[in-house]
């Protein structure tokens, strides 16, 4: 089993910055990719950014050029640096990891989620 815990949410003014951190514990050896999703009130959860093998990144169009995802595999951590924040970035941000395990002769996959951290951007 894997547990994900997020840190770093809060209230910030538009144009400001926040850095989210997520630490994975438990059976972390096969977590890939890791990333961040967010869910605003009344909206579906959406992809923010993912990082694969510590280097290949993918971003939602809405955050490209403003957010940067990174990871430290030795510490089982993933980060999201958020700059030039906008009120529409307000949401609960969830850490995500895809785990792989071997069972009955095949690779199987499971999605892990953190509890979420609130990010509020005031105008």
Task: Report the sheet with the most strands, covering strand number, pairing sense and barrel closure.
Answer: 7 strands, mixed
**Relative strand content:** over 45%
How far do the termini sit from each other?
Answer: 40 Å
* Assembly context of the chains: single chain
Order of helices and strands: EEEEEEEEEEE
Give the C-alpha Rg. Answer: 15 Å
Structural class: mainly beta
Describe the protein:
The mean pLDDT is 95. The radius of gyration is 15 Å and the shape is elongated. The chain is 0% helix and 63% strand. It is mainly β. The strands form two sheets. Strands 2, 4, 5, 6, 9, 10 and 11 form a seven-stranded mixed sheet that branches. A four-stranded antiparallel sheet has the order 1-3-8-7, with no helix packed on it. The N and C termini lie far apart (40 Å). Strand 5 and strand 6 form a beta hairpin. It contains no helices and eleven strands.
Question: Which descriptors would you attach to this protein?
Answer:
123 residues; mainly beta; 11 strands; elongated
Task: Present the secondary structure layout.
Elements: E1 2-7, E2 10-13, E3 18-26, E4 31-39, E5 46-52, E6 56-59, E7 67-72, E8 77-82, E9 91-103, E10 106-113, E11 117-122
Parallel strand pairs: 2-11
Antiparallel strand pairs: 1-3, 3-8, 4-5, 4-9, 5-6, 7-8, 9-10, 9-11
In short:
By secondary structure, this protein is an all-beta fold. It is 0% helix and 63% strand.
């Amino acid at each position: 089993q894997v547990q994900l815990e997020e840190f770093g949410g809060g209230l910030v003014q538009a144009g400001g910055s926040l850095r989210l951190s997520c630490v994975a514990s438990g059976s972390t050896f096969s977590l890939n990719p890791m990333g961040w999703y967010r869910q605003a009130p009344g909206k579906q959860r959406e992809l923010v950014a993912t990082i694969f093998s510590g280097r290949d990144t993918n971003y939602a169009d809405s955050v490209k050029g403003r957010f940067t995802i990174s990871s430290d595999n030795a510490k089982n951590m993933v980060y999201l640096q958020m700059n030039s924040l906008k009120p529409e970035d307000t949401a609960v941000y969830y850490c995500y990891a895809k785990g792989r395990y071997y069972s009955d002769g095949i690779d199987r996959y499971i999605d892990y989620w953190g509890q979420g951290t609130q990010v509020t951007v005031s105008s």
